[in-house]
Design brief:
Order of helices and strands: EEEEEEEEHEEEEEH
Largest sheet: 7 strands, antiparallel
Strand content: 35-45%
CATH superfamily of the largest domain: predicted glycosyltransferase like domains
Mean pLDDT: 80
Number of helices: 2
Helix content: 10-25%
CATH class of the largest domain: Mainly Beta
Structural class: mainly beta
Strand order of the largest sheet: 7-9-10-13-12-11-8
Low-confidence stretches: 1-6, 196-200
Distance between the termini: 24 Å
Shape: elongated
Length: 236
């Protein structure tokens, strides 16, 4: 498992930005690494990469390296990036892609017959206060069958969830239900360089969920988005 404390200087990486659509992927090289930040020199200037955008550095199949960050400064082909954490390897046989999937969710309790879940997917309002909804960081692993995201510990394995999803740069929203299949604590070494001052809002766990009821068009859109990312990676 890679972590942000290793010596990353002079390492070739894919710089993956999902703040834009289609995904922007460029080759680069880490030229300077300090605790909490690093500098990347791209193969050429890329004006579309702007300060504030979220990116992932991926070392490719031959190197277990995937680090999240935020562009703090761009000058020509040079990026200065603030580290936000390490993305752990996927434990599944078929790894998910990672993307800026916008999600809100809430734990569904007291619905043994599934009436609330069915009403939610059908587009109807559900009982409960608005504050019950959670909005995790959009940089998460995804596929047409499930998600893995970071959040505080507010659900457990086996819990059912109501969810709403959207792809980057899209106004379309899809409703779904899901079941929590895994909840893992975030290791301290995987969060080196996270922004301080977030208090209790900082994520503490990785939550993996499997869709139970997801519209066909949403499955197709997630699959197509993943293929676009794969195509962009193959062209780098």
């Amino acid at each position: 498992m890679a972590n942000a404390s290793v010596d990353l200087q002079d390492v070739d990486v894919d710089v993956i930005c999902l703040s834009v659509s289609p995904p922007l992927i460029r080759r680069g090289r880490v030229t300077l690494h300090r605790a909490g930040s690093f500098e990347v020199t791209l193969e050429g200037p890329e004006p579309a990469l702007e300060p504030g955008m979220r990116i992932v550095l991926d070392g490719g199949p031959d190197r277990d390296l995937r680090i999240k960050g935020r562009i703090a400064e761009r000058e020509g082909a040079r990026l200065r990036v603030e580290t936000e954490g390490v993305v752990p390897p996927d434990k599944r046989s078929f790894p998910r892609m990672y993307g800026g999937i916008h999600v809100r969710y809430r734990v569904l309790a007291g619905d043994p017959a599934g009436k609330i879940a069915s009403a939610w997917v059908a587009g109807k309002d559900v009982p409960g206060e608005e504050g019950a909804w959670r909005v995790p960081d959009p940089f998460m692993d995804f596929s047409g069958t499930g998600l893995r995201f970071e959040d505080q510990l507010c659900c457990a394995k086996g819990d059912r969830l109501l969810m709403e999803l959207a792809l980057p740069s899209s106004e379309e929203r899809w409703r779904a239900t899901a079941r929590v299949v895994r909840v893992d604590p975030i290791r301290p070494e995987d969060v080196e360089g996270r922004e301080e001052g977030k208090g209790t809002s900082a994520p503490t766990h990785q939550v993996a969920v499997q869709f139970v009821d997801l519209p066909t068009e949403a499955t197709e859109a997630l699959t197509a988005f993943g293929m676009r990312i794969q195509d962009a990676l193959l062209k780098t």
